[in-house]
C-alpha cells in the first residue's frame, strides 16, 4: 500500500474536464491534434482534474496534452475507466501506457450492465481491487451504478468504491442514490450537469436559472455547476471553446444561497430528463 499517493478530492479537483462521448474516436489510429490542443487549453485555463476512459479511445490524446501543457501529472487528478471486463489488469496497464503515466488517482469500472449475474459483477470488482493493491492508483470506484449494483459488490468487497460517477443534474437528482452514497462514504460524481440548458430545454428551470445567473453576474452553466459543487458533488463538464472552459471554472468562485440551491432542486424536480441508458431505465425511473 506504500505506493498510494491519494489526493483529497477538494478545491480545484472537484471540477473535472471531461474527454468523454463528445470526443469519442472509433479506433486508436492517428492522434487527434485538435483534441490534444483542446485538453491542453483546458489545463492552461486552470483545470487540474481530467476525466478519461478506455471506451472513448482518447487516452493517447489526453497523455499528449498533459506533456504539451508542461504540467506534471503529479499536480493533476486523473480519472481513468475500464470498459474491458475480460482482463481488466491488461486494460489498466494499457491505459497507463496510453496516458504516459505510471499512476492515476481514480480507476473506475465504467458500467455494471455487462454482468449477467451478481457473481460476474463481483468478480470484476475483485480485479479492480487487485489493481488498487498494486499501488498504481490512489482509489477505485464505479460509474453508472445504481444502489442495487453498489450493494451487490459490497456483499463481497474488500475495498468499497470511493466514488460513483453518475448522470446527475436538477432534472435527474437521484436523491435516494445520493443519500446512499453519503451513508456509505462514497463520493458522488455528476456527469451531464448542464442538461437543463443543453439537452432538456424548454423546462421549468429556464427562468429560475436566468434570474439567479443575472443576480450573481454569471452564466446559467455556472449556476448549474455550482448547484452541484456546493452540495459536495464532484462535477465533470467539457467544452471545445476556451471561453466556455474559463466560464465553467467561475463555478469555483461564486457562491449560491441555501435558498437558491433549494429552489433549483425544488423546481428541477418538476421535470424528469435522462440522457443516458434510456434502454435500461423505465421512462419515469428517477433512481
The CATH class: Alpha Beta
- By CATH, the architecture is named Alpha-Beta Barrel
Widest beta sheet: strand line-up: 1-2-3-4-5-6-7-8
Domains, number? 1
Could you please say which CATH topology applies here? TIM Barrel
Number of helices: 11
Site (Lowers pKa of active site Tyr): 81
Binding site for substrate: 110
EC number: 1.1.1.307
Domain NADP-dependent oxidoreductase: 15-267
Describe, in plain words, how this protein is organized in 3D.
The chain has 287 residues and is of the alpha/beta class. 39% of the residues lie in helices and 14% in strands. It has helices at residues 33-45, 59-69, 88-99, 118-133, 147-154, 175-183, 195-198, 206-216, 220-229, 242-249, 258-268, and strands at residues 15-18, 49-51, 77-82, 104-109, 137-143, 163-167, 187-191, 234-237. An eight-stranded parallel barrel has the order 1-2-3-4-5-6-7-8, surrounded by six helices. Helix 1 (33-45) crosses helix 2 (59-69) and helix 2 packs parallel to helix 3 (88-99). The chain is globular, with a radius of gyration of 18 Å. The two termini are 35 Å apart.
Short key terms for the protein model shown above:
single chain; alpha/beta; TIM Barrel; 14% strand
Topology summary:
Elements: E1 15-18, H1 33-45, E2 49-51, H2 59-69, E3 77-82, H3 88-99, E4 104-109, H4 118-133, E5 137-143, H5 147-154, E6 163-167, H6 175-183, E7 187-191, H7 195-198, H8 206-216, H9 220-229, E8 234-237, H10 242-249, H11 258-268
Helix pairs in contact: 1-2, 1-10, 2-3, 4-5, 8-9
